[in-house]
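A quick aside before the break. I want you to see a complete sequence-to-structure record at least once, exactly as it would be stored in a machine-readable document. Don't worry about memorizing anything.
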Amino acid sequence: PTETWTSMGGGNFMGKFSGDNHVISGLYGKGLFDKLGSGTIMNVRTENCYFYTTASALGSIVNRASGGMILNCRNTSKVEGASTVGGICGEVYQSSYYIDFRLENCWNSGDVTGSVIVGGVVGESTGGTIRSCCNTGNVNATSVNCGGVGSTMSSNTVVEAVCNFGTVKALHDYVGGLLLSGKKLSQSYNAGVLVAEGNAGSIMKSGSESDAVNCYYDSDKNTWKGIGDADFAGSSMPLTTMEWCSGRLPVGFSADYWAVRESQIVDGYKLYYYPYLKNIGEESAQVGFKRKVY
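That is the input. The structure line, written in tokens, reads:
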């Protein structure tokens, strides 16, 4: 491309920006907004863009947030940076000067690549809440440290009702199906494939039983256990693909966030679906398996 996009909000954005669900396309460069303070960015769709930088902190919607809200946004474009790269937001560095960070009802389906600290939705976070978000894009760390939804989440970061379907890969190791590490993860699941030399977990690479509540992974997709090399009842638990697509929500999943899509016949096959996030919509429901209808 001959033109490079310059992110909006050179300072910490404090206003309100609604995309009204219109599509923004054709951007080449860093994310739509550079820095987010106590502002709100909502109802944005980015398609056919290429978000790229050789610097740290890159996301399709926001590169770096110190607070504020990112709501109801979707990215289908490729995101490729150096370190601290996320499909929606690159880095969250929560500041006491701004309102608590919230990222809710967002869906990334673009591939996300970086050297280290790479996440399908958020690269890294030191605080705030990430809720009702989904990643279906592939996540690739050309060195180490990546997660299907987020990489490193601090003890001050709440992650609730999230899912991953993308392949999560590191050239070496330190790979988490949902997070690389975190302390407050609940009612979430990973159905993506992990690729690593070692040091991986189908839910989190690093953590303990108390760090996750009612979290699951598809055991037909991975041989890695839930957290590190262990599963824990009520914390990190395996389900087969058929169990996922049984038409029932797993134990501990709230109908406030999750729903089940009924199986349907398409082109001579009956399709069975994984649970999907209600606030993102039925279109985000992923097919688990199909059977020929005679």
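Two observations worth writing down. The two ends are 50 Å apart (CA to CA). The mean pLDDT is 95. We'll return to this after the break.
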